Here is the input.
Amino acid sequence: MMPTLLSIGHGYSARAFAALLGPEWRVIGTLRDAARAEDLRALGVEPLIWPGQDMTAALDAATHLLISVAPDEAGDPVLNALGDAVAQRARNLDWVGYLSTTAVYGDRGGDWVDETSPLAPTTRRGEQRVRAEAAWAAIPGLPLHIFRLAGIYGPGRGPFEKVRQGTARRIVKPGQVFSRIHVADIARVLVASVARPDPGAVYNLCDDDPAPPQDVIAEAARLLGLPIPPAEDFATAKMTPMARSFYAESKRVSNDRIKRELGVSLAYPTYREGLAALLAAAG
Here is the structure.
């Protein structure tokens, strides 16, 4: 039987994953906007408008399931709408992946965390993810794999345009570090997990170099040959509440497990290689 991936919330990371699966796979991807259906067809993905269209046939066909939809105050929307249907088909699924976030670990003051670290979210987004992870894990017999993603960057999601336009800011908060991951490496980890399923496993997806955000902006400017934006003190910088909230957590996330258990070798082990590749690809 042809392996079939049902990707619920077929967005940025899911598209990169599907592109690596190869022609022997059937991929069904959900999206909300019917106007974007042709975009998926052009990528060899069967579009399904959800919420809206009936999911029964897609769930029946699926051998693999990827959930990329974020929870909200009402809980996980996929579980709320399709949880019973997924539970009824748990034995038919070879692999289920849930894309979560490293926000579940909360603020650690720059200390290291790994997959065994206690979950201590300090943001509403992190709290929602902790509840969603637990709810998915509670489905009996589901071959669930949880992937906790650090900050995602890649084609179309890099700092270069802001640096070119002169709108990039180097906000400096002492001791602040973020972990990040190139979308291509997310895809590599997911493919490796499909090849080596381990139901119940949890993986951190990040690169080898947690770094201050101002260093990333400086490297982008250096690669472009443009002046490095001046440093701004976080304490006095004018920022929206949303922008300021991104600095509420500081931690270094370990990726040892994806290397040890999945044999993954990152294509972009630090933001330096990742940014250079993005610039080269853009010409």
Summary: The CA atoms of residues 209 and 270 lie 5 Å apart. DSSP finds eleven helices and 13 strands in the chain. The domain at 4-151+182-207+252-267 is CATH 3.40.50.720 (Rossmann fold). The chain has a mean pLDDT of 96.
